[in-house]
Amino acid sequence: MRVAAVWFPDWPIQAVGGQGPMVIARNHAVAVCDRTARRAGVRRGMRLRQAQALCPEATVVEANPDRDGAAFAEVAAGLDAVASSVEVLRPGLAIVDAGAALRYHGEKALEMLVDASSYAGFDSTLGVADEIATAVIAARHRGMGAVVPEGGSREFLATQPIGVLAADEALGFDAGFVAQLDKLGVRRLGDLAALPFNQVATRFGETGRRAHELAQARADRRVAPEMARPDLAVEMEERIERVDAAAFAARQLASRLHARLEEAGKVCLRLRVVAEFGTGEELARVWRTQEALTEQATADRVLQPRAVGGRGVAERIEYVPYGEQRDAPPQGEWPGRIPAPLPARLGGGPNHPAARIRLIDAARREVFVTAEALLSGAPVALSWGAHRFRVLGWAGPWPVDTQWWTNTPQHVARLQVVGQADYEEHQRAWLLVWSGGRWRVEATY
Fold first, then answer.
1. CATH code at 252?
2. What is the pTM of this model?
3. Side-chain half-sphere of 330: how many Cα atoms within 13 Å?
4. Which of 47-61, 92-106, 253-267, 318-332 bottoms out in mean pLDDT, i.e. has the lowest?
5. What percent of the chain lies above the pLDDT cut of 90?
6. Confidence band (pLDDT; 50, 70, 90) for 114?
């Protein structure tokens, strides 16, 4: 089998079609940046504020997966004209059964694939290899692409830095896994391939197994064209006007779908959700996942989050039915709101037992919020379960009185804290909430 991977660098930026330095932002961080912004020092994952300081002339555009997918659908259609088996791994990356294309078009088949994307006005690189993962890595090789000779995948992969595993989300490896390998002295894929399989699988589980097989260029699946398959679709015809009704309908449909999947002995890796509106408009979205979708994960894909007004973290996110257009949320000062950037992850909630935390000052006294909404002392240490952290910085508190119009008003205050453990090289940051006479973790940065 020969596979061609067609990679479109910085695809979200190409989909927008902007000029000059550009940054695609998600959750106040850099999701994608173009070459000009990278020259200025901007990198993926960097806080948006820092990126704007390095490249103030950059245009910032919010991430929009629907826009990226819709634009790439046209590109994939162009590839279909050259090869019969085209599979989209994600917007900006497609794989093609190169063997079939070469048999039909001859040696010019690869050139035709590149032309099919360039005719649409997009930049792309091509990687060809015997396996899908190797072809994806080859497409990114030195930013120009590479054709790996038949039978030469293992030699090609052996020289690749271990970081290529996390270079593309389609490969299914995260940066944390790569960092662990690097700490163990595994610098290149050849180093990983030389390790005993059982040791890697025991240490890293399924992720380690897949990485070891990739490094050894084990034969994988074929490119999957659209094929006839049993109709497992489920649908519901009901007028829905509220978010809670949409969520309830989604859970019902997800339950019915997974019952059909179980009966057919199948799992779902590609899900298409379609919403029809009373106006006759139809919206659809497709999700592709590395792991089989659970019933809950399927139901969650019917709603989409949007930012709304509020003081805390959870109350500033609202879920609405996918595709529904709503009026912009009301704007206001929201006294007591925490300043940006917002935390990246919510905790277990103020009432979750694992959220309890302690702050102490230099005299080892408990730090609390006074009746005047001030801290009783400057925090110097933080304990969370068995973990201990030195407090490096803090901001707040921001007091809020809620439910003041009822018989049970609530007085809370929020505090941002940065700390570091003696055994860790990196710092941590939390958003704490003072309520009911104790501190709890509301979210982490």
1. 3.30.1490
2. 0.54
3. 4
4. 318-332
5. 34
6. confident
Q: Which residue has the tokens 């304990």?
A: 383
- For the chain, the domain total comes to 4
Residues 23, 115, single domain; the answer is yes
Query: Crossing angle of helices 98-105/109-118, nearest 10°?
Result: 110
User: 3-state SS string over the chain?
Assistant: CCEEEEECCCHHHHHHCCCCCEEEEECCEEEEECHHHHHCCCCCCCEHHHHHHHCCCCEEEECCHHHHHHHHHHHHHHHHCCCCCEEEEECCEEEEEHHHHHHHHHHHHHHHHHHHHHCCCCCCEEEEECCHHHHHHHHCHHHCEEECCCCCHHHHHHCCEHHHHHCCHHHCCCHHHHHHHHHCCCCEHHHHHHCCHHHHHHHHHHHHHHHHHHHCCCCCCCCCCCCCCCCCCCCCCCCCCCHHHHHHHHHHHHHHHHHHHHHHCCCCCEEEEEEECCCCCEEEEEEECCCCCCHHHHHHCCEEEEECCCCCCHHHEEEEECCCCCCCCCCCCCCCCCCCCCCCEECCCCCCHHHEEEEECCCCCECCECCCCCECCCCCEEEECCEEEEEEEEEEEEEEEECCCCCCCEEEEEEEEEEECCCCCCCEEEEEEEECCEEEEEEEC
| Helices 109-118 and 65-80, packing angle to 10 deg | 140
Tell me which of 129 and 323 has the higher pLDDT.
129
Q: What is the pLDDT of residues 335-388, one digit of tens each?
A: 667 776 767 666 544 444 455 788 999 999 999 998 888 899 999 999 887 788
pLDDT value at position 281? 64
Co-location of 185 and 307 in the same domain: no
Q: Are residues 253 and 384 in the same domain?
A: no
* 276-325 confidence digits (pLDDT tens): 777 666 666 666 666 788 888 787 776 766 667 666 666 666 666 554 55
Phi, psi values for residue 59, rounded to 5°: -85, 130
